[in-house]
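Exercise: predict the structure of this protein bound to PBG.
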Amino acid sequence: MTSFIVNADFPAHRPRRNRRDDFTRRLVRENVLTVSDLIYPVFVMEGEGVREPVPSMPGVVRYSPDTVLEAAKECAALGIPVMAVFPVIDPSLKTPDGIEAVNPKGLVPRVVAQLKDAVPNLGVLTDVALDPYTSHGQDGVIDDDGYVLNEPTVEILTQQALVQAKAGVDIVAPSDMMDGRVGAIRTALEAEKFIYTRIMAYSAKYASAFYGPFRDAVGSAANLGKSNKATYQMDPANRNEALREVAADIREGADMVMVKPGMPYLDVLRDVKQAFGMPTYAYQVSGEYAMIKAAAANGWLDHDKVMMEALLAFKRAGADGILTYFAIDAARILKA
Ligand code: PBG
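Solution:
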């Protein structure tokens, strides 16, 4: 039969040769996902024996301090390096200035101390931002017009990071997008001799609608109402600006940088890794998780296959690790 293939390389070059057998597919594989790439985010609330499901995030629960310990032990047993703690704060403790965030006896410092005591080999990461603590759901303190004030917010965030460091946290992760906060936190940590507290900066964090289920989970959605975070989180249209944000956070003392959300921003992740070669993390956020769960629940997607493919895509784009609500599910598959 006459061949109509018009390719100067063909048949010298037949890419399908390497794809023919599993052994060569494995041999030429460029990227792998390992358990060491995973960070497991958890929601924690007061109480005992609590595992309260989050409706918009099937499979995700709100833990109490005792049950989160069980999850931490499971992470450690699976080899997941780090757990990220997000608080669900009692509405009675929420104020316009979110000052509960700096309470040394608050939920987060207590949980951190307990985790480091019981599971010392598991790294613990805490979010530095005020939205779980403010009565208006914004990440900082606001003026009469609802505008988030930069310096007054950075002052509280710095105290919040110090309280977390004193409780023994390994990594603080400012997710607030205030200007200058990484430098302020680094200076304060050094001054207080917390020279090993790592800062994972949410450097390129976009004003994204993909955070919806997270705001349900921590109970900030209703407080936030119709207002948004566009005056401090980044415009989803911008790419160059992400590089400037990351550069600033590195200069200010970040040890690791993050791009958030994940899958819709793989181009940004790629740019950041390529430009700076820093330890770079992707946050596969709540909305990304919810989309996969919803489609899988309908039988429209294969849950495990799509989950593993999405996580691998972060590695291919240049991530050194991924914050993902799938961490335990994925780790179980990787261990099997
Ligand atoms: C709080 C914070 C948010 C997320 C992580 N830290 C929400 C927000 O910025 O509104 C989102 C995580 C997710 O959607 O999974 N500053």
